[in-house]
Amino acid sequence: MTRAVRLVSATDVARLAGVGPAAVSNWRKRHLTFPDPRRTGGQEMFAFSEIAEWLGARRIPKNGLRPDEHPGTTYGDRFLRNSGMPIEAAHAVEPPPAQREPDVVSAMWSAMDKVRGFLDIDSAFDLFEALLILKLRHRRLWRGVTQEPRSDVLRDALDRALQDQARISLPQQVVDQVRDAGRERVLSLLVHVVDAFAIPTDKGDVARFLLELQGRMASATGRRGDTYTPLSVTRVMVGVTAPTSSDRVYDPFCRSGELLLGAALHVWGSSAESGRVSLTGHAASERHAQRTSMSAALAGIDIDVIRSMVLEAGVGIENEFDVVLANPPFGLTNWTSQAPTLDKRWRYGEPPPHNANFAWLQHAAAALRPGGRAAVLMANAATTTENRSEAAIRARMVEAGVVECVIALPPGLFTSTGIPVTLWILRVPRQQTVPEVLFVDATHLGSIRDRSRRELGDEDVEQIVGAYHGWRDSGGTAGYEPPRGLARSARVEEIRERRFVLNPRSYVETATVVPGVASGMRTVADVRSELTELGNRARELDRVLDDRLSRVDEEDVFRRGLPSGWQKVLLGDVCDILAGPGYVARLMGRESPWRLVVPRTIRYNALAGDTEFVGEGESARLSRYRLDEGDVVCVRTGEPGRVGLVAPAEEGWFLGPGCIRLRPRHPVDSSYLTYYLGTPEARDWIDRNSSGSAVRSISSRTLADLPVALPAMPVQQAVGGLLGAVDANAMLHDRLGSLVVEVRELLLASLVSGLRRSESD
Q: Which of 64, 178, 295, 375 has the fewest CB atoms within 10 Å around its CB?
């Protein structure tokens, strides 16, 4: 039975929120995100839950608080209290409609935006995954949670689930965080969200669904997250090792269980058999053990998770597995307390204590049964290191025939590291050493997805896997001819001559492409035309800037009124503040009419950098994040406080992740505020109030308490106009410099290659 939607009028909204009717009218005019009205009996009405949610994002100014309201109270809290409804039940009023969106993963991740600010993204994801486990694997317990979405009920349900699956470690501490923080309404919302979605039930579909969710979390956490293995890289690794249902598969450093899930998916997809797959993983921390166990529980598969740092306790893995898949931590220091000479795994040499790279490679090789194969991700530096012990180990592994193939992967595949990465394919040495190694240079493959992150598409994965299996099926000799510029088989003699350097780019010839019109590059004439146009603009901007500077000297605008005309306010009292969404589905390598503002878009106190693009469906979901002319966009994560003013041409763009929107109200001029936030005083305040060590971040709630010094409006406008002209001038001259460099590169490519152009320069 569908529950009736509770409706309220604008008069009711004003009364329950404790404001005048004019305030509600102004809110509607000012904010495009104000809930849409519904016509009932000729009167405009609003959905109660939508109004409550919208008001919940509007903090009551300190001078508007009532005696029983503490700082930080929102109009939504007052609205709910005056309506007689408990605050924690706000989101339980109207369960969301059944989800019909085809991309369930995107829709579910979007729903998690609603808990940002209450839980960190890792804890929110753990809680989300725990709810999914109950829904898919413990339906009776799930019904109880949906009927009473409270933390004590959820805790009891998880305890019972643990009794059924003793090896599964569910995040009880996350539930405790929700309870201790008094955020029952967050839990209520998530329960209803999870209950509303049609989650796949087939084991393979669930595994794919989970891998995509994990990938979304890695994208959202960026460099703050663990080195999660991207799905496209996982597909390459299981593609080259090709596990079967009879194989024992092992991950010596499982993170979220993504490699073992990928192996299970490969088995189910390559045969009619979908039964038990033997999967074993070593987890270096309780966090990794928990994540892997939860992945197994959600996918409905068995993973034998062993909690230990395997390099310290590797006894018992020798010659045990048919397939090894590993994404170990690169450059791990102080990795063992034992004497290396006592470990049988180091048959090719003792790894140095300052770097565990060759310990991981030898550990993977030692774990293989005869005929087995291992795929190990490794920092590119391992292919060229000249450290004496590491170079010696690498040489011995090549001479012994352990290294079968080395694949150079494209840059930018991982959200948590930007260093070049290679994939080593290892095997058990045969009686007679195979004299060749296959090198694959895949650095040119893939396409940009988001935040400059690259992703391997289906054709890219097929090219890499096909090159390896084509070479292997041919007997692993130089007689195999892969596509030019992709792969090459090299004899050990040649590798020896190169001092056992294993970087594929040293062996694979890259096809040279001469730039020109045919390749889609601009010509010198194109760039010269733009240079002429920008030169004319530069001269006009110089005149404008000179005029403004002369008026500053004549009118003395900065000193007029300083003694008595200034006031100090809090940013939250003069601006509506909105944090950007946690995740947005960007278009991959394509443009659209709908632009997304991300931190790198903000340059020169304007939106002058690269934007990203979203599709029509995503733009509809982002309607509340639509930007207006005069909005100020502030970087929230990474370099908090860097700001950009939204110009008329940028109206209708969307606020993206990692950003905060400031919408100034009277008596604040948008241009003045933009530059005030760049003053040493404001930057110092933001730095002191930001959190995090490696990656700094500031919340919208914290930013609302930033003190702002305001002069009279004419002074604000003079400041904003002058500094805006300076920035516009600097931006244009920066573009002129880039064009000159582009001319140089075009001329260099043409002259060195001997290409003759028929352009009249």
A: 64
Distance CA 514, CA 520 (A): 11
- Alpha carbon distance 312, 306 (integer Å): 13
Which amino acid belongs to residue 551? R
pTM summary value: 0.57
Buried b (16+ CB within 10 A) or exposed e, 258-295: bbbbbbbbbbbeeeeeeeebbbbbbbbeebbbbbbbbb
- Confidence (pLDDT) at 534: 61
Q: What pLDDT sits at residue 225? A: 44
The pLDDT assigned to 545 comes to: 54
The answer to whether 487 and 467 are in contact (CB under 8 A) is yes
> What sign results for the dihedral spanned by CA atoms 696, 701, 705, 709?
positive
DSSP assignment of 440-489: EE-TT--EEEETTEEE--HHHHHHHHHHHHHHHHTTSSTT--PPTTTEEE
Tokens 């990794």 correspond to 288
Quick one: 98 exposed, middle or buried, by C-beta within 10 A (0-12, 13-18, 19+)? exposed
Distance CA 97, CA 751 (A): 64
Q: Quote the pLDDT of residue 590.
A: 67
Out of 109-118, 273-282, 370-379, give the one with best mean pLDDT.
370-379
Report the alpha-carbon distance of residue 435 to residue 443 in Å, rounded: 25
pLDDT for 392 equals 93
- Tell me, what's the pLDDT at 90? 40
HEC states along 201-237? CCHHHHHHHHHHHHHHHHHHHHHHCCCCCCHHHHHHH
What are the residue ranges of helices labelled H in 61-183?
A: 75-82, 104-111, 121-137, 139-147, 151-164, 172-180
Question: How far from each other are the two terminal CA atoms of the chain, in whole angstroms?
Answer: 75
pLDDT digits over 506-546, tens only?
888 764 444 433 333 455 565 666 666 666 666 665 665 56
User: Measured on CA atoms in the order 35, 40, 44, 47, is the torsion positive or negative?
Assistant: negative
**What pLDDT score was predicted for residue 202?**
65
How big is the chain by its Cα radius of gyration, in Å?
30
Residue 621, phi-psi category: left (phi > 0), alpha (psi -120 to 50), beta (remainder): alpha
The 10 Å Cβ neighbour count of residue 421 is 22
**Residue 356 burial (CB count, 10 A):** 21
Backbone angles phi, psi at 304, to 5 degrees: -80, 100
Single-letter code of the amino acid located at 589: G
Angle, CA of 595, 598 and 599, to the nearest 5°: 150
Task: Name residues whose C-beta falls within 8 Å of residue 541's C-beta, 6 or more positions apart in sequence.
Answer: 725, 728, 729, 732
Q: Is the dihedral of CA 175, 179, 183, 187 positive or negative?
A: positive
For residues 267 and 245, the answer to whether their CB atoms sit within 8 Å is yes
What is the C-alpha separation between 503 and 423, in angstroms, rounded?
11
pLDDT class of 240 with cuts at 50, 70, 90: very high
210 neighbors 142 (Cβ within 8 angstroms): no
d(CA 626, CA 570): 24
Per-residue pLDDT tens over the stretch 472-485: 887 766 566 777 78
Provide mean pLDDT across the span 625-636: 91
* Percent of the chain that is helix, strand, coil (3-state, to 5): 45, 15, 40
User: In this predicted structure, what is the pLDDT of residue 214?
Assistant: 73
Share of the chain above pLDDT 90, in %: 13
User: Mapping DSSP to helix (H, G, I), strand (E, B) and coil, where does residue 692 land?
Assistant: coil
Q: Identify the pLDDT of residue 514.
A: 40
In angstroms, rounded to a whole number, what is the distance separating the alpha carbons of residues 692 and 534? Answer: 42
**Is 332 within 8 Å of 355 (Cβ atoms)?**
yes
In whole angstroms, what is the distance from residue 442 CA to residue 87 CA? 54
